[in-house]
Amino acid sequence: MERDLEQLNSALNAIKVLRSNVRSVFESVSNGLRADHGDEGKETKFIYELQELLTTVNNNLRDVENAVSNLSQQAGPFSLGNTTYLSQETTQERQALYGQLVNSYKWTDKIREYSAVAGNILAANSFNKTYKTYSTAKRRKTPTSNHNVAPEVIENLISSIDRLFPDVTFTPNRPLVPNPIIQITLGRILKAIIAFKGLMIEWVVVKDRSESNDLWTESRYKVFRKVTENCHAAMCHFHSPMMPDLAVRSFMHWFHSYITLFNAPCKRCGNHLNSNLPPTWRDLRSLEPYHEECK
């Protein structure tokens, strides 16, 4: 399997080189005679240059043929299911359905992966034991729901957290009373829009400071999309129905560690960048920065 992948990678690289050199041929033909060819014999120089480019393309084409011949043959036809009928469509709008279908499959795979991770994190918190305690003990008082609290309770909690971090700005908004949407500006680094459901964090999206405050639109920057994914994981990790105020404080303390997003090196590899990204993960206990590949 590994050998097949190496051969496929070699064939793709050969095709990439071929396309690059073919583009050079077309650029040379479109530019025609240039000033760097000189005044004397410029037609001959142009022809020699074009011959060299065509010779290079011919050699690249031979490399592609050799790389493709080394690939292992598929045992049978690919099973595409009903998607094979998409190739019979003649309208341009329906021909684009296959690309959209592939994107939907990728999106579904990501949803399954994130759901599995979230399920493991939630399973680590023993909710059943908590509810069992209430069912077996003397029912002196019905526990207060964390989703139905007074607005003043949430405001007091946010105000107390705001006093802990002088370099963080909290801007509350209440489009749907009593559940607020808090905009957190972390220095000059980033901003986060956090939606609450009572005393529990329901949704988080991280963006650049210049982007919109739309809660359901992700950032156009990959680094902030990665931070958003990690915030969702941390939101599930710190989730505690019995101590929601402590869960919110723990999450805010963890989120504050992103104040060093662009200047703290990775704790494992010691580099600032990996795959053109800074360390976008913060350890849930030590708050140390790690790259996604190093955590």
Automatic annotation (TrEMBL):
Pfam families linked: Med27
GO CC annotations on file: mediator complex
Single GO term (MF): transcription coactivator activity
Keyword Transcription among UniProt keywords: yes
InterPro entries to which the protein is assigned, alphabetical: Mediator_Med27
Subcellular location: Nucleus
Broad class of the protein's primary localization: nucleus
Gene Ontology BP annotations: regulation of transcription by RNA polymerase II
Keyword terms, alphabetized: Coiled coil, Nucleus, Transcription, Transcription regulation
Ranges in a coiled coil: 47-74
Top-level taxonomic group: Eukaryota
Similarity remark: Belongs to the Mediator complex subunit 27 family.
Protein name per its UniProtKB record: Mediator of RNA polymerase II transcription subunit 27
Lineage of producing organism: Eukaryota, Metazoa, Ecdysozoa, Arthropoda, Hexapoda
